[in-house]
Every structure is written in structure tokens, then in C-alpha cells.
């Protein structure tokens, strides 16, 4: 459990110590169709991918319909009468029609609109009109094509391999053990912002694993982070757990809200501020989070390879999923979970302020991602450079390449 790599004191030693000396990557790592296809087939079709929370399916018969952009996969997740959550391709066993059209709901059974084949919530065929026309199809046996599912700490993962190379537990390794009982289930007030972007998915992932840009790009939108004593906004703690990782963004202990409107919003505890105690802070106080007790802290981000980041905030958590649909396009699914819904004018206002402030930060990152991709597609720059302080980008590039090559 304590075997993960912690960064040493001097940031200039990190990359060498971690054997992450690759200080650049070809532009094609971000722009080429071939690289995208390798990622789609050798990463997204092999790795465990987080797609939903168990709170979305509390009761037997509850289902959600998912569109997994990267693999053009249409899935339904459904909780059966036995309490199990199962995943299926939304594709009728007869001639393939998408059986379930509703985005989510509760159903006792699913009926295909074309020839009325009926499936139970366990995915098995129940009835076929004119069953004797199909002597080889067995009700109670054949059914919707299944996809492997697993649950870790309330997150539902799917795996598209015929037979996954590792169980979800093995795939998550130490990170899965360390963060296994973070109380995500206590945060159920959700705000969701799916953003289609004209960029490579790795740029957005990269933007949340380096602090270098925070004092420049987000100087105004994250005023409580910039600290003259840490001018490149180095992360005070980074942990590598095999292919997964975690990184802490600190905050400036001397910062005070200057505008009355900001103070008003922060006092409710809705904002991920540097100073004030929010009402619900169980996630941030968990012993697995912030092992060095950095204070003040803005967030600790848990990076689950390949496309998930969970940011533990002072007032809840953010769950990012990055879904590429080509080298130059992606969906950034942003899900924010807070511990309570607003319950007064003041808390309504505070939440709106927090969301507006987050929107500015995210829009800054999105716009850089799009400008970066346009700059790279232009074709003049042969290699992007990773600084010593961008060692998490090196780690991710190396992990991704190793995974594609079957080395991790
Ligand atoms: S395609 Fe579904 S019943 Fe025919
Ligand atoms: Fe950013």
C-alpha cells in the first residue's frame, strides 16, 4: 500500500528519478489518425473505463443508456432484480435494432420496437413472437450482447474486451485500494456539463496534470492559487501508482477575497476556496487524501488511466471523462457533485457563482486545447516539449505508449 512513488524534494530531480527522461513527443502523438486508431483499439477497447455512478441506478429495473463515442458503442446499464448492475450493447439479438431509446428510466423488461422480441432486466430473451421460426434461439439463454462491467467505490466501469486481461481490481491496483472508501456516495447534487471540443483528448488530460499554466492562463480565474513563492505552481504532492496517479494543487495562504461579491459567495462554503470551511468536507478529510496535509489545498486529482480524472474538492468532487472520437475531436464530460443542493437565495447565488467561476477556468483550458491542436495541425512544429515540471505528462505519454505496446 505504501509502495507508490512519491516525488522527491527537488523538482529538478523528478524526471530522472522516475526514469521519465523523454522530454518531448512527436506532434503526431496528438494529431495522427494512426495514433488515434491505436488508442481506440489498444487502449479504449482493452482498459476498464468509468462510465456511470451506482446512484444513477438505485432500484431494480433502473437503466441508463450510454453512447460511448470513442468506440461508437451504444450501451445500456441496468440493475437486475437480483441487484446486480449489468451492461449490454443496445442491440437486438434478432437483427440489431437499438432496443432502448430512452436516456434513462425504470423498466420491468425491454421490448424491441421492430419485431417485439422482449428482454428481461438480466438481458436474457423472454419472448419471441413466432418463436418456432427461430429454432436455434433460446429464450432464457440468448439475449442482448453483454459487455463486462465492474464497480469500484460506486463508479461503474465497463470493459469492451471479449475477455478482459485484468479484473477491475487488478487494473486499478494500488490506487483502487488506497481510494477504495472515499465517501463519494455522500455527494449527490450533480451538475453536468458535457463539452464537445475540437482538440485531441490528451491535451485536456495534460492540462489537469501540470500546474505550470495556472499562474498564467488562470491568473484571474483562479486568483487564490497563484503564490509568488511557487511561481510555476508546482504541485506540492504527486503520487504515482503504476499507470494511475494523483496530484495536489495547493493554494495561496495569504489570499483574501477582495470583491464583496466573492466573499459573499465563499462564506456559504459552496466554493472551492482557499480559506473557508465548507459544511461537508468528509472527502477532503479522508486519510487517503492529502497525505502531506498541505494547507491550504485547492484539490487532489486522482487520475485513473486512461481517461478519467476525479478531483476531490473542498465542497464535493469533479469527475472528468475524456472521450476522443478522432485525433482532432473529443467529448469532455464534466460532472460536478456537491454535497447538497442550494436551499436559499444565498446558497443559490453561491452555487451559481461557483459554477460561473468554474466555467471560466474550464473555458480557458478548452480554448487552449483547441488553439494547441490548430497550432499542431499546422505542421511546422515537429515535437512538443515536456518540461522537468511537466513530468506527469511524460509519465502519461509513456504509460499510454507502453499500454498500446502491451508492456503494462
Ligand atoms: S430487430 Fe429487434 S425484434 Fe427484430
Ligand atoms: Fe487549466
UniProtKB/TrEMBL annotation:
Domain Rieske: 48-158
Name of the protein: Phenylpropionate dioxygenase-like ring-hydroxylating dioxygenase large terminal subunit
Presence of keyword Plastid: no
UniProt cofactor(s): Fe cation
Keyword Calcium set for record: no
Gene Ontology molecular-function annotations: 2 iron, 2 sulfur cluster binding; dioxygenase activity; iron ion binding
Signal sequence range: none
Native organism taxonomy: Bacteria, Pseudomonadati, Pseudomonadota, Alphaproteobacteria, Sphingomonadales
CDD domains in alphabetical order: RHO_alpha_C, Rieske_RO_Alpha_N
Source species of the chain: Sphingobium fontiphilum
SUPFAM superfamilies, A to Z: Bet v1-like, ISP domain
InterPro entries on file: ARHD_Rieske_2Fe_2S, Rieske_2Fe-2S, Rieske_2Fe-2S_sf, Ring_hydroxy_dOase_asu_C_dom, Rng_hydr_dOase-A
Keywords: 2Fe-2S, Dioxygenase, Iron, Iron-sulfur, Metal-binding, NAD, Oxidoreductase
